[in-house]
User: Fold these one by one.
Assistant:
Number 1:
Amino acid sequence: MEERRKKIEFDALVIGAGIAGGETALNIANNGYKVLLVEKDHSIGGKMILLSKVFPTLDCAACITTPKVSEIARHPNITVFTESEVTSIVKKTESLFIAKITKNPRYVHVEDCTACQLCEKACPVSVRDEYQFGLVGRKAAYIPFSIANPKAAVIDLEQCTLCGACERVCPTHCIDFTMETECFELQVKTVVLATGFQLFDPLKIPRFGYGKYKNVVTSMQMEREIAPTRPYHTILRPGDGKIPDQIAYVLCTGSRDDSVGNPVCSQVCCMYSMKQAQLLMGALPMADITIYYIDIRSFGKGFEEFYQQAKDMGVNFVKGKIGKISEKENGNLILRYEDIQEGIVKEAEHDMVVLSVGMLSNQSVHQIFDGEMLQFDSLNFIWQSDLLGSPAKTNIDGVFVAGTASGPMDIPDSILSAGSASSEAISYLIQH
Amino acid sequence: MKKNLGVYICHCGGNISDYVDVEKVRQAIEHEEGVVLAKTTMFACSDSNQKEMVEDIHQYQLDGVIVASCSPKLHLVTFRNVTETAGLNKYTYVHANIREQASWAHSDDKEGATEKAIRLVRAAISKSRYAEALYPNKFEAEKAIAVIGAGMAGMKAALSIAEKNMSVVLIEKENTVGGHVAEWGSLFMTNEKGSELVQRIHNDLLQHENISILTGTEVVSSKGSIGNFTLTLQKKHQPVDNLRETMEINVGSVVIATGFDHYIPQRGEFSYLNNENVISLPDFKKLTDQSTGKTLLYNGKEIHDIAYIYCVGSRQSEGENKYCSRFCCISTIHTAIETKKKFKGIRNFHLHRGIRTYGKQELLYDEALQNGDIFIQFHDDFPPEVSFKNKKTSLKVKDLLFSDKELLLDADLVVLVTGMLPRIDQSIGQLFKLPKGRDNFYNEIHMKLRPVETVIDGITLAGTCQGPKNISESVNSALSAATKAFSSISNGLVETEPIVAEINGNSCVWCGECLKACPFEAIEQKEIDGKIIAVVNKSVCKGCGMCAPVCVPNAIDLIGYSDKEIFSMIDALVQ
Amino acid sequence: MTSFVKKNAKILVFSTEKISDPAIDMAGLLKLHYPPTVYTITVPCSSGIKPNWILHAFEKGFDGVFIAADGTDCVFGESCTEKTGKVVAMTHEKMKQNNLDPARLRMAALCSVCSDAFVRQVRSLNEYLIKTRYSEK
C-alpha cells in the first residue's frame, strides 16, 4: 500500500467541506493558491445544506449553500476529495506538512453519472436514509439527496447484495465495482481544520424515550420534515402519520447537562427551535407549539427581535425542565416537567415531541497528528491557543481552525471564523 | 434584438411555489416573442440546474437568459457567471425577483402573486430583448488599504493586511490605540489584561514597516470608489498650537472598524447619578481593576454586597435598543468572579432577565453558581426598584422563579450592566454613506453570504460597528474584512460595472445642463466634426444617471436603462 | 344598488438598487403585505428617472407612480434628494399640461430598511387612487 501512494502537492489542505471549510477553501483559492478540500461524506455542504431555513432572516438554507457548493466545485484552484479521510499529518518544516489521505471508492464514476436515478429504481435493497435522519428509507444504490454535490450516485457496498441490477440499467456505464481505495501522500504548506461538530445522540437520555416512542424526534429530523427537499410533503408524526397539532420542544437536550458530560451551551438550539416553531406555525396554522426552556439565548444580530416575533406569533414559552416523557396508547406523549417559574412539577400532553439536540465536538482529527500534537480543550474541541488575539490559531504554527471544530457556533459566526482562519492561512502562505 | 431567449422559473423549494403557481407563470410566458425555452426548476441556483442552463444555452443557441427567482441581491452574480461560463456576455442576463417581491410580499393573495409574477417575468423578457453585450471597465487599483479605528478589530485587520505584504494606514481619532479593550482589566476566558492584549498586538503592528499608525487623526472627507479612494485626514486640535494639519491618502479599499459606545444610563434610571452607589459596568470594572487593597473600597466605603442589574439599555421593548448586547452577561459574571477572588467578603447578587452565557461561557456561569453567587431573574415588565434611605441602598425585585415573590435586598454597590450602542458619532457612516440596520449598527450585505461587505464596493465592516460582539468574535470579523479588502485589490486591478451614461452626439446641442448635474465631473465638452458636444469620461462616470433627466433634447441614456428598455418593461407590466 | 369590487390600482414603483429596493425586499421577507398590483422597476439612483418614463407609464395605463427615492443615503452624493425633487417637479408640470392629476405621482425617501414606510406609502397611494378613480366615474 505504502508504495502505491500517489504523491500530490497543494498550497493548503482544508479538512471538512461544511460551510466553514467551504468558505475557507474559497477565500484561499480566490487569492491564487491551490487548495485540496477533503470531505469524508459523499457530498460537500456539511450540515447546513440539509437544513430548512435559517434564522433570523428565514432565508432558505439551500438558497445560500447550493450556490456556494457550486462555486467550490467549479473553482479552478480547488480540488475536492469526497468520501476521503486524512489519516495522518506530520509537520516537517515551517512550510511543509506531509499528510496521508485515503479516498474510499464510491463505485460510481462521478464524471459520467447523470443522476438519472435509474440505478436507484432498479436496486432491490432498502435501508435507513441517513440524510433524512432515518425518517424514510433509501436504496443501496442511491443519490445522497437532491441537492447533493457532486450530484451522482453512490453504491453502499455494505448493504449491497451485488445483484448487478444497477449496473445493468445504468445508461452511461458509470457504475464500477472494481474501484479501489486510493491512497495519497500530500505535501502542503498550511492546514485548516474545519471538521465541524457532532449532534448529541438522545439515546443517552433514556428518560426522554427517544428510539422507544416513535413520536419523539430530534430537531434534525424535524428540520428535514420542514425542508424544501423534505421526505413527506407535509409535517407528519412518524408513529402513525397523523398531522400533529400539539408540538413540544425540549431545549438543552444534551447541552448544559453535566449528567451527559456536556456542561456547555450549544448556542444554536434556542434559535433553531424558535425558527422551526415559526415555520411550523406557517405550515400548520392550527398547531400549538410549546417550547420548554431553561434560558432563552437569543444573543446575535436580529436574534432578540426574532424571539419577540416568535412570542408575538403565539409560540408558547414555558420555563421548565423536563423530567420524563411517557407515551399514551394513542401515541401522544406526557411530559413531566418542573415549572421553574411556579416551582412545582406539572404534566402536559403533546402529540409530538422534538428534542433540541446540542453540538458536541467531532473527535475525528484527534489522533491524526504525528510528531507535534494538536491540543484540545476540556470538551475535546480544538484548542484555540490565542483565543482573544488570533482565534483561528491552534497550538501548531501553520495549522488553523475554522467553524464549530473549536466550539459551538451558529452559521454567521462559523462563516466569520472561516474568514479568520483563511486570513491566517493566506498570511502564512505569503510569509513562508 | 435577442431572438432566442431561455426563461427559468424557480420554485425555490416552496418559497416561491407555495404562493405563486410557477407552472401557470411558465405557460403564460412560453409563447412570448423570442422565448424558445421556458422551464420551471426546484432550485435555480443549484449546481445541477446551473449545469443544465449551460447545456441549454449551447443546445438551443440561446442569446438571452432570464431567471425568475429570489432577489437579485442574492443571485444576480451567480447567474451572470453561469451565462458567462456558457460563452454569453454576462450583462445580457436579466433577473426577475418573484420571491421577495411576489411570493413573499403577497403570500396572502396567491392569484395576485401569480399574476404579478407573470408580469414581472414578461418585463424581464422585454428588457432581455434589448440587453446589450457590455464589458466591465478595468482600471488600476491603489495597492493600499485604510483601516478606520484602532480598537481590537481595527488593529487586527491592519496587522492581517500587513502580514499579506500590503500597505496599511491605521487611522485612530483618539491619541492612543486599543479602544475600549485597552481600558479593561482581566478579560474573560483567558484572564489576560485588556491593556496587555492591546500592547501585544500593538507591538506586532510596530514590527511591520508597511503599517502607518496615525493617532489623533480623523477622516474628514472621502472621494472616489473601489480601487481609488482619496481620504482627507485631519490631525485633531493639538493642545499647544491651534494649527490643523490635513493630509490626503490614496487607498484601494477601506475597512471600517469604528466600534461601539457604552450605553450611558439616563439620570434616574435605576437611580443612576441620583445615588452615588449606583455605577455602570465599565466604571465598576475600572474600580476593581485599580483597587489594590484586600477590601474593595468605593468612595472610602467598604464594599461587600454587590447587586448587578442586567440588560440596562439592551433588550428594551421600546426604542431602538431592542437587541441583546451579547457580551454583557459573561462580562459581568467574569467580573463578579474576579472581584470575589481579589477582595475579601464579597457577595454577588445578579438581577437578570435570563443569563446568556452561550457556548463555553457556560463554564464561568457554573463557576459563579458554585461560588455561591445569587442569581435572581426578574420579569421583563417588572424591573427592580432601587431606593436610598438612611444612607442605605436597597433593591426591591420580584423573583420570577419564586412565583414573583417580592424580595428586598440591601447592597453596598449597584452595578448597572450596560450594553453596547452604535457609535453616537456617525460621521464615518455619513462620509461613506453606509446603510444602517434596524438596530442602527452598520449593515452588511447579507449575514451569511457576504457578512463583512457593504453595498458600497470597497468598504468592509470589522468588529462591533456592525453589531455587538465579544473580543474573539470581533477579531474573526476583522480578519474576514481584511481578507475581503485585500483580495479585492491584491492584483492591482479592479473591475467596475460597465453601466455608464451614453450621449447621443447627433442630438446633443451642448447646453451644459448635464455637466452641472454630474456629481463626479465625468462630463467633458468636446468638439467632434466641428460640433461642440458633451462626452462622458467612462472611467470617472459612476452610472447614477443624474445627467439623463436634465438633458433637454433627451440625448442621454444610462446603459441598461435606456428609454426603449424602460418603455418595454412598462408596457409588459401593464399589458 | 350595484356593489362593485374594490379593485386595486396599478402602481409603478421606481426603486433604487442599493437603498430602497432592499427595503422593498425586506417588506416581502417580513410578509408585510401590499397590493400585488404594485410593480417595481429598479434603477441605480432615483435622480436618474426621466419624466417621460413616468408619462409613458400613465399613458399605458398605470394609475399611479411612486418614486422610492434614495434620500440622503444616496451612494452617489447628497445632491440626489434635490435632483429627484426636480424630476418630480418637472413631471408634475408636464402632468398638469396633460390634464393628469399630479397627486398620482408621489415620492418619498426610503432607507434600506424602511419596509414599513414603503408599505404605508404604497397602501396610501392605492387608497387615494381607488377613491379618486371611483369618484371620477
Number 2:
Amino acid sequence: MNLETVLRIILLILLIVCAISVNVTRTLLQSVIIFMAYSSVSCIIWILMESPDLAITEAAVGAGVSGVLFLLTLRKIREEDAKGLDEEEGG
Amino acid sequence: MKKKVAEKVEKKSLKGQDNKKNGDVLKNRFLRWLDGEFDAAADIMETDETPYSNREEIKKSMAEIRQDLKKDDRTGRLEAAEKKHYYRIYNVVAVISAILLIGTLLFVISFLPRFGRENPESTEVVRRYVEKGMEETGAVNIVAGMILDYRAFDTLGESHVLFTALICVMILLRLDTKNQRRQFEDYYRTTSMHFHDISNEAIMRNVGMVLIPCIFLFGVYVLLNGQNGPGGGFSGGAVMGGGLIIFSSAFGFDTADRFFTAKLSAWITFAALAFYSFAKGYVFFTGANGLDNHIPKGTPGAILSGGMILPLDIAVGLVVACTMYGFYSLFRRGNIGGA
C-alpha cells in the first residue's frame, strides 16, 4: 500500500465518522460544525479523484455558504427563544 | 422591562462564573460567547458602542411607522374587498395552468429513452464528446465545453433555478413594513443585550482587509479560466459570493449597501439571464447542424477562446454571486439592502 491509498482510506473513514456523528450529536451547533467538516473532507476527496472544479464548488458552497446559512438559522432560533423569555419574564 | 432583563442576564452570567470555575468554564465559554452573554475582550480591547444611545430617535421613528401602519390598514381593507372577486378567478386559473403543466411534463417524459439500456444517448454521445469535444467547442476543459456548449440549455435552467430559489427565499424571509417595525425594535434590543454583533470588530476588519482582495482575485481567476482549467461560472461565482459575505460581515451591512443594493442585484441577475438566453439561443439556432455562426473559436488554451463559453461563464458567475449574497443578506436581516 502506498501513501496515497492510506490517505484515501483515512479520508473515507473520516467521511463515514462525520456522517454518523452529525446525527448522534446532541446540540445543533455541533451538527453544523461537523457538517462543515464533512464538506471539507469530501473536498479533499474530490481533489484526489481528479475533479478540482467540483472541489472548488464544494469548498465554497458546502463548507462555506451553506454552513453560514445554517449558523444564521440557529441564531434566528436563539433570538426567538430569547424573545419568548423576555415576554414571559418581563411581561 | 429592558433593564430588569439586562440585570437578570448579568446575574446569570455572574453566577455561572462563580459556580463553574474549573473545566466547565472553558467548555461553556464559547457557547456563552455565542449567546452574547460573555465578552472575552471586555476589559482588554476598546470596542465601538452599539448604537443604543439614540434610543429617543428610534422611539420617534417607530411612532411614525405605527401611524403609517394605521393608515395602511384602512386602505388595505378597501382594496381587499375590491380584489376578492379577482382572487377567485386567480385561483381557478392557477389550478388549470398547474394541471396543464403537469400533463405536458408527463407527456414529454413518456418519450425519454429508458434508463440504463443500450441506446445511442448513453453510448455514442459520450464518445463523441470525449473525442471531438476540444475541436468542436474550443475548450481545453472538456467539462466546461460540455456544460456550456453542448448542454448549455441545462446550465441556463440551473441558473434560473438559482434565481427562483432566491425569489422563494425573498417571499419567505423579506420583511414588509409591519415586520420591519418589529425587527427595528428587536434588532436594537437583541444586539445590545443578548448578542454580540461581529461587524466592525477589529479582528474581522483586519483579517478581511488582507483576505477579501485575494478571495475576489481568486474568484475572478476561476471565473475567467473556466474553459482552460478547473472552475468556471458556478465555482467562481460561489467564491465571489463568499467574498461578498465575508465583506459584509466584516465591515457591516452599511458599507456593503453603498455599492451592492437590491436594485443592482436585480439588474445584474436580469441582465445576465437575458444575455445568456439570447446568446445561447442565437448560437443554438444558427450554429447547430454544422452551420456557421460567425463566432470565432480561438486557439484552445488562451483566455479568449471557446467561442461563447467565456461570456456565458461570466453570466452564470454573476447570477451565482448575487444569489449567494442575497441568501446571506435575507437570512441575516430580511432584505438585500438599499431599499
